[in-house]
Every structure is written in C-alpha cells, then in structure tokens.
Amino acid sequence: DDWLSALREDQFVETLPLLRRTFGAFESGERRAIGRAVRDSGAVATRTADEDGGFDLTRGRVALRAAAAILGVPV
C-alpha cells in the first residue's frame, strides 16, 4: 500500500495494467489469501524513489521476495 501510494501519477498509471493482469488471473479465493498474506506480513521500512524518478531497487527486492514467498517460488 505504501509503495503504491508513493508512486508518481505516471508510474502508477503504468503499473495498473500489470497489477490488474497479475491479480485478475487468480481465483477469488487465491486473491483473498494473497491479500491476507500481504496484510499479515508486517511493516517494512520504505523509502521513496530517488529524485531523478528511478525506482528504489532495495524496496523492489523486498517486494519480489514477498511475492515469491506468497507464490511458493524459491528465491
């Protein structure tokens, strides 16, 4: 939630189709389980993207590890 709300408007708009396709492919029960897993994972220290509009790679790695754990994919 914090990561998504920290995106600039153009970054958010570019991300929406990917999020929609990704979560739209799951059954409703799976989406609920993913939502619970994200909700229950606890807070993570966050930073905003750097001033030149780049992405925070440290935060990205945390997100990828979390997504892999939720999906049961080894990292």
Description:
Helix content is 65%, strand content 0%. The model has no long low-confidence stretch (mean pLDDT 75). It has one domain. The protein is mainly α and 75 residues long. The chain has four helices and no strands. It is globular.
At a glance:
The protein has 75 residues and is mainly alpha-helical. 65% of the residues lie in helices and 0% in strands. The longest helix is centred in the first third of the chain and has 16 residues, at 9-24.
Structural class by SSE content: mainly alpha
Number of domains: 1
- According to DSSP, the number of beta strands is 0
Can you tell me the residue ranges where pLDDT is under 50 for at least 5 consecutive residues? none
What's the topology here?
Elements: H1 2-6, H2 9-24, H3 28-40, H4 57-71
